[in-house]
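Re: beginner question about structure tokens

> Can someone show what the tokenized structure looks like for a real chain? I only ever see the sequence side.

Sure, here's an example I had lying around. Input first:
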Amino acid sequence: MNTLLTVIVLWLSSNFDLPLDLRHPSIQFVTPASLAEIRGSRDRFRSAPADQAAAARSENSIEGLYQDEKETIYLREGWSEESVRDVSVLVHEMVHHLQRVKQEVYTCPGERERLAYKAQDKWLTHFGTSLPDAFGLDRFSIFAKTLCF
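And the corresponding structure tokens:
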């Protein structure tokens, strides 16, 4: 995993305005329920889904998270470095780690996501796919996820 993280940091720092910092975050593999719980504790102001079906869909859509305070990336159990899609999730979360290292300040959490989605899509493009193909995220969906309210 350290070699993969180093490759990702080198790629991110050479393609985006992010620092070349080889102090890697901790990586933990957790259940979808744990990812949802971590997100819930982090996003205190996000409204809860209205029903159990919506809550389950939300839980199952979380692929990974970065927790600044713990300098930890949480990835869904079953994540594989053999999967371009899965590695792109790690790329996305490494952007957040390097944003923290750089001490970037954002007006809202969504603004912080813009670069992470851009980097993730660029990574996927190198392997012949994209965010819409791999995750069903079109440009409008990404735009909506990165708005500040």
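Each token stands for a local structural state, so reading them left to right follows the chain. The chain is about 55% helix and 10% strand.
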